[in-house]
């Protein structure tokens, strides 16, 4: 299987995930502000490491994930990393994303996504893997990959988004590349609440602190029960589709077009 790393690119890839503990709350901040917190390989590694740490830390009761600044939670995965991708790299990448989201889903503690601005592509997937989601009125969600890169998601992520948003809405969001606004996300149950910009993070922390004061085993049992009910371990084969999409001329055209700041010329091959 192909393995991808930032060494495949001539430019250094920046970004990190910051860790801070506030009482019983672990705060993870996705930080790549020059690229709207787009996720780099290092950031995925950092996030995995932090999740492994808090999973074993009995002093942590709740995990809150947010983006650095107030413009974005995470605007996808850093596109510069895709320049040399092959079909096998695409399969490895989607499997890596599945591994990270599974850690979020299986974390034995409640998780909260605090969404300022954009949660796009990989950012959408990370928010969907959290237990609760709160946003400001400027929060925007979507996977506009049919307009930007011409890639696809893993079948597990299609399944998860469908369970949260419904099949028709997932099709519409991907087909049209439109973004889901905060009010609509709240109306369909994807967001748990919308807080004012000026008090947003304080309000999210208040929710987290309230949860942290509840019976830990009740929270754990509820999360385990719901996880088992939505078990996706027996998903249909899909790597053949991922391999074809990421190995296509269209995907490479989408990446180059994005970097060159022009519209891609789709050819369907």
TrEMBL record:
The keyword Nucleus does not apply. InterPro entries: ClpP/crotonase-like_dom_sf (IPR029045), Enoyl-CoA_hydra/iso (IPR001753), Enoyl-CoA_hydra_C (IPR014748). GO terms for biological process: fatty acid beta-oxidation. Keywords: Lyase. GO terms for molecular function: lyase activity. The keyword Glycoprotein does not apply. It comes from the Bacteria. PANTHER family: ENOYL-COA HYDRATASE, MITOCHONDRIAL (PTHR11941:SF54), ENOYL-COA HYDRATASE-RELATED (PTHR11941). Belongs to the enoyl-CoA hydratase/isomerase family. This is Enoyl-CoA hydratase/isomerase family protein. It comes from Alicyclobacillus mengziensis.
């Amino acid at each position: 299987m192909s393995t991808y790393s930032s060494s495949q690119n001539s430019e250094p890839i920046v970004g990190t995930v910051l860790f801070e503990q506030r009482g019983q709350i672990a705060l993870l901040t996705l930080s790549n502000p020059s690229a709207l917190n787009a996720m780099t390989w290092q950031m995925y590694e950092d996030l995995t490491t932090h999740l492994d740490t808090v999973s074993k830390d009995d002093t942590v009761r709740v995990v809150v994930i947010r983006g650095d600044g107030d413009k974005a939670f995470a605007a996808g995965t850093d596109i510069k990393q895709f320049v040399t991708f092959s079909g096998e790299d695409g399969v490895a990448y989607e499997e890596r994303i599945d591994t990270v989201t599974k850690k979020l889903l299986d974390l034995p503690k409640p998780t909260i996504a605090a969404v300022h601005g954009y949660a796009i592509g990989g950012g959408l997937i990370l928010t969907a893997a959290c237990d609760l989601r709160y946003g400001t009125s400027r929060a925007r969600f979507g996977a506009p990959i049919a307009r930007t890169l011409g890639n696809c998601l893993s079948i597990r992520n299609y399944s998860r988004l469908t369970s949260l948003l419904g099949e028709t809405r997932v099709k519409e969001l991907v087909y049209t590349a439109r973004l889901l606004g905060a009010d609509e996300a709240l109306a369909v149950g994807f967001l748990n609440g919308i807080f004012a910009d000026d008090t947003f993070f304080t309000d999210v922390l208040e929710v987290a602190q309230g949860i942290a004061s509840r019976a830990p085993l009740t929270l754990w049992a509820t999360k385990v029960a719901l996880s088992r009910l939505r078990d996706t371990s027996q998903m249909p084969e899909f790597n053949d589709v991922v391999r074809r999409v990421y190995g296509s001329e269209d995907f490479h055209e989408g990446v180059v077009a994005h970097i060159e700041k022009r519209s891609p010329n789709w050819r369907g091959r």
